[in-house]
From TrEMBL:
Record PROSITE patterns: NUDIX (PS51462)
Domain Nudix hydrolase: 26-241
Superkingdom field: Bacteria
Names of the cofactor(s): Mn(2+); Mg(2+)
Descriptive protein name: Nudix hydrolase domain-containing protein
Gene3D superfamilies named among the record's database cross-references: Nucleoside Triphosphate Pyrophosphohydrolase
MF term (GO), any: metal ion binding
InterPro entries on file: NUDIX_hydrolase-like_dom_sf, NUDIX_hydrolase_dom, NUDT19
Sorted UniProt keywords: Hydrolase, Magnesium, Manganese, Metal-binding
Length: 275
């Protein structure tokens, strides 16, 4: 685990005043880090690139921050009728240290939120096929955002199978206890399927782009991006990966990471248990 740099401070007003009583119970959530092997033109590889969203300033949680697609688990994400290909819920439950019902919900939420926020759909007509053109599902994407039906119903209506085998478990971050809005977020890694192009067409983001992790970190250092600790750590780790296959096959520790917020006399900073 990389130590957080002293320069990684939280913006003024981001930290809520200390509230009386016990910490809020974290809500289960899923985040998907979309990656691709980029090019600089011609056949020259630029290395691994990651898809980033800048959240709308003023949002209740992480407004103005650069993040990966993701969001909270919907109770319907645990629907056992979800058509599925890949490692079973029991495999995911073992990786994330939870029960099978929650594991199923987390994987479903990961795929659903990625589709809602980026337009990337990790699904196919069977276990060997992956959707290459998501335009026919444009209206369904908004219907999912509006919660008109569950993701299981969407898949069934279009004869699709959730491709859990396209995801890899990456990390498990929990919002600090001092915050009133808390999330127990499981991070997943996924390569963008051939032919699909994430667009960031979501009301929650004001900007979307591909960048190498190194370039994104340089933007943060220059003050052009605001990063939360999980995003900074993930980008730092991915900067060490030579390619998408390398990142997808790197063994990961999935212990829960719960930072603490401290005040250094000038700024609020997040401190990791290992710092």
């Amino acid at each position: 685990m990389h130590e957080l740099p002293e320069e990684l401070v939280l913006p003024d007003g981001f930290v809520s005043p200390e509230l009386p009583g016990p910490p809020a119970v974290p809500r289960d959530a899923a985040t998907v880090v979309l990656v691709r092997d980029g090019t600089t033109g011609g056949d020259h590889a630029a290395g691994l690139e990651v898809f980033l969203l800048r959240r709308v300033l003023g949002m209740a949680f992480a407004g103005g921050m650069t993040v990966f697609p993701g969001g909270g688990v919907d109770k319907r994400d645990a629907d056992a009728s979800t058509r599925w290909h890949g490692e079973p819920p029991a495999w995911w439950a073992d990786r994330f240290g939870c029960d099978e019902s929650l594991a199923r919900a987390l994987v479903c939420a990961a795929v659903r939120e990625t589709f809602e926020e980026s337009g990337v759909l990790l699904a196919g007509t069977d276990g060997t096929d992956v959707i290459s053109d998501t335009r026919p599902f444009h209206s369904a994407r908004q219907d999912l955002v509006d919660r008109k039906y569950s993701f299981a119903e969407f898949l069934a209506a279009h004869g699709l199978v959730l491709r859990a085998d396209l995801l890899r478990p990456w990390a498990n971050w929990v919002t600090p206890e001092a915050e009133p809005r808390r999330y127990d977020t499981r991070f997943f890694l996924a390569a963008v399927p051939l032919g699909q192009h994430p667009d960031g067409a979501t009301t929650e983001a004001e900007d979307a782009t591909w960048q190498t992790p190194t370039a994104a970190l340089a933007d943060w250092k220059a003050g052009a991006r605001l990063l939360l600790p999980p995003t900074w750590v993930t980008l730092t780790e991915l900067a060490e990966a030579a390619s998408v296959p390398t990142a997808m096959t790197t063994p990961r520790s999935l212990a829960k990471i719960t930072p603490k917020i401290v005040h250094d006399g000038t700024h609020h900073r997040a401190v990791l248990p290992t710092d």
